[in-house]
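Hello,

Following up on my earlier ticket. Below are the three sequence lines again, exactly as submitted.
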Amino acid sequence: MAFFRKYRNKKKQQTPFQIQNNDITKNLISPLLLENMAEIQKIFSETPDLVVKNFVIKQTKCPAALVYLSGITDTKTIHNHVLSPLLFEANKEEKDFEVQVSLGHVKEKNAWQEIESAILQGNSVLFIDKRIKAFIFDTQGWPQRGIEDTTIESSLRGEHIGFTETGSNNIAMIRRHIPNRELKMKEMTVGARGNLKLTIMYLADVANPEVLKELVDRINKLEVDSIINAASLSEYIEDNPYSPFPQLFLTERPDFAAAEILQGRIVTVVDRSPNVLIGPATFEIFFKSMDDYGARWIVASFIRLMRYLGFIVAIFLPATYIAVISFHFEIIPLKLLLSVAASRERVPFPPFIEAIIMEITLEMLREAGIRLPAKIGQTVGIVGGIVIGQAAVAAGIVSNIMVIVVALTAIASFIIPNYDMGAAIRMLRFPMMIAASLFGFVGLTVGLMTLIAHFIALESLGTPYGSPIAPLRFPDWKDLFIRFPEWAIIKRPESTRAIQKKKANSNRPKGDEQ
Amino acid sequence: MKRWCHATLFIFLIVILSSCGSKAPLEDLTLALVIGIDLDDENNLVFYEINPVFGGGAKKGIQAYEVKAKTIRDSRRLFDALTTGEVTAGKIQVLLVGKRVLQHEDWFPILDTVYRNPTFSMSTRVVTVNGPVTEVISHQPKEIPQLSLHLKAVIDKNYDRTRAVKGTLQELHREMRDKAMTPFIWEVKKGKKLELTGISLLDKKGKYAQFLNMRESSLLLMLQNKKRKEVTFTIPVLPTGDEKNIFHKNMISFSESRVKTKIKSGYKQNKFHFDIKVKMSINIVERLFPEDKLDKEQLKKQIEKELKKQIMDLITKIQKKEIDPIGLGLYARAYQYDHYKKVENNWGKELAEADVNVSVKIDIIANGAVIQ
Amino acid sequence: MKYTKNQITFMQYIFLIHGVQVGVGLLTLPRELAEKAGTDGWISLIIGWVFSTLASLIIIQVMKNYPNGTIIDLLTHYFGKWLGKIAAFIFVLYFAFLGAIVFIREGLFIQFWILPQTDLFILLFLLSIPSYLIVRNNITILGRYAELVFFMTTWMLFFYFTPLKEAHWLHLLPIIKEGWKPILTAVRTTIFSFLGFEIAFFLYPFLQNKQKASIGIFIANTLTLVLFLIVTIVAFTFYSPDEITQYKEPTINLLKIVEFKFLERLEIVFLSLYIFVISTTVLPLFFATVFSTSQLFGKQDHSKYVGWLLLLNIVYVFFLPQTFDQNTQFQKGIEPISLILVYAFPLCLWVYLGLYSRLKRRALK
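Thanks for your patience. The regenerated structure is below:
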């Protein structure tokens, strides 16, 4: 591992990349409108979507120019609230023109750099002749979709709205759940080209300041061109980049994000991405779903247990099959053994090859199903089902038992509510299968031990990832395998290192007291 | 980069090395399900093996082989020459031992490899065959499933009904090694059909000593406090009045819901004493004579008397052969350690001279659903 | 002070000590006891527990004199730098040998029972991968590992309830058959099976709540006793007293008869999982080795020694073929050293430190 560290260090020594900075950075605008317009044309050369509207302000009779990019501004706002007041309204009492602009968010700036970035972000800029400041109007508006139901993390009882690509909307959706003044936000910008706006949301009196500082530091250290979505941001800032496990939780559910903020976690809203990042993540939150809190606690606990069972099955079932068939057939009772042996009799491949063929076929089918349009996707399912279930067995390439094993594994990996964790599990079973095919149960055990060795040392934002299992924290087990009734969980989990522990008092009326 | 190369090379090496050592997968093995040991007429050891055959090519579901070899391990070499796959011992269900083998002392060491080798299963049932083993091995009727499954199922069923011991290799080992008791194993006989007849009692050296039928073995197990799910006795309680007792009008059947055997050991006048007290609660499940012939008290007395007689017969039988399948020696060791220790190596003889008192106490708790 | 960063909780402390105590020894323990004391061996276990508890309490008393350092820091503090170095050297050798013996024995068991066709050095290489990943970390990770493994493997004890159904309790009677002498000879065996609490020499400075150190080590010893007693008594009642000495590893043999409707031959499954239990012995021992090594050379980071230690083991096994007998010989060889290091050394040190502090107090007055 020392070796990896060296590798990483080497990377750091590379020269930080630079974006060509024009000489405009320090320049201020000129009082002459014509000069300014020339500068604008220089900056935005080959930009056909740039709109420059020259006109005369009715109030002051000054020549002026409104500059904006046509795609990412809201044309209606510009027409109704900027252009038409300036062009047509004249108020005799007021000398200045500003009253006529019926917008709340107006800034005065004189540095070209700020003006440039304002235009690029969808604001419109008004230059007026003989003025040394330009006016920036908040007229942002870009193509965006409406708020829809969540697609990946769908739920029965949870909220039916999902995050969209607009950061401010996403913040609003979270804030609606926590209208509290302690809900603080830190705004940061990342990416020299992308200028991506990140908003870190947390409860100031609950979230651990150390964790917050860690997160902010890591984001501050980023020197990148741009980040397209939240997932790639998490790849930049997570603790162990070589781990198969996701170390920050990506969600598209506002209710889940809000619930985690209330637990003491920190949410990073990434503008332009329909997901938010939740950290510090622990292993167990990947096994939670909002529906656990929508169902009766007994039902929810049962489903939780099934998920953990699914986790174990998905990683170890094919490997166990290989180990048993090729090493330890003694452990199967005779009757089952006879039927397994009978079904394997015609199979020409060793168990490992057989399993790999089936697993890879299955993975391909799954991937094909996701990317294809829904109508063709169904066909893939049918073809795959027939190929796997019928033809392969009939042709004697794989055994019946193997088909059952693969199908069970697939179902077990889909039961994990989080997509990233499900994918991680699907990847993990391949090394396990190799270990099992070489050393049987011993290989499996060593594989598991290696996994545990990695798991217990893994951290998310400096918080133990395995908590509350390793390190063991029994108070947190109330919401682990068994979900206790809500009124029984009166403390925040220790796993988040929240500084305010208690979150409720259990004043539930008992029995006939009502 | 150099380190990457080394790591890759090393892993590659490991993969190659380990692939040499891995075992053959299931389908390349020949699973021996039954192993038989017998002596032929010239007292040569003969070994038998039965294994299942899969696939459409084979007509019969199983194959049986017979070889002459020196030891069990040696026989594997010869079986390997005959079978398709490597013969493996991991799933042997039944071990058949011919009665001719049991008639010799010290046959037990030929089973050495079974205990020495970790691949053997310890829950293999050991069964002795009254007659040549080859008859049982070649007995493959269509109406019953494979011999191994069939034999094991029959044994397990009778075990559950407290008619027989499990008779595993593990138990045999214990009984052979423990100085305070003697071994007993299952006996089957091939008449027209394969039939479970009872248990064979062996002496300390493993030599065949006595045969017990099913009824007696039930009693034996009762004395050992090994009641399983159910135990039923059918005994006569009335003297056979009529000469033509076609319908056995003197019989009564009862099942025991609770049996408790208490054995006390003592040592007086250079002799061991055993007090065996059997206490049981019974349900009458069958009665072929009317109620007025015996009232409740009399019935109880009669049953007690009959049972006591049967137990005494059993014990006399045992004492005559100087064996101890009940394990009375365990009680002697636990409570009369000093005296026992002196005669430890000769326990059978000591037991033959011991006094054994038996008392039976029953309690009728149910009479069934009809009043007659 | 210098160890405040990596702390272990009370529970981790208990399970670390308990983990080191329970390992390969348990597999052969019932036979070793039966050979010496017959079915009275369980009494020897209790006596052994008394001794080991006393010794561990003394260790804690000693460590209290210098609560923020390991035994090596303590010796350096009281006797100077050179004695500290020598002690570190002795501890390195002791833990390295102890660890290597258990590590190799673990490999031998796997080879014999599960993978007879695989070379020993390949098995050890395989086991080295997770070992390396765990030991190179700090003590906190090791504590988490011990804790997790304890809860992951304790349920296996339920396997032993099936043989208990066929138990003959008469085997245990009469209690104290041959007098006390055989029982006392077997105490020697049990004392060695309780060894492992000397890891407290290195755990103490990392413990969060140092007031609980004594009670923690007591609980660890008692847990070990309970486990040993259960396994021993099951083996004694299941096997006849004349028979048990026939089996090399009765603890594994016991499981050969356990059958479920869906699973047979539990000993294979058990032994595969038992690798975890053995690893909680080996890994803390290796940790103590590399930790003392880093103290010996005055380095902060111990992780680079881990690879060398493991490599040394593999190379050793590769060039010198190992057998059970040879391994047992080594074990026998290290036993007297253990006795000195674990019983005599802390006792002397305790007496010395007691006198020292009293004299100092008197001098101050």
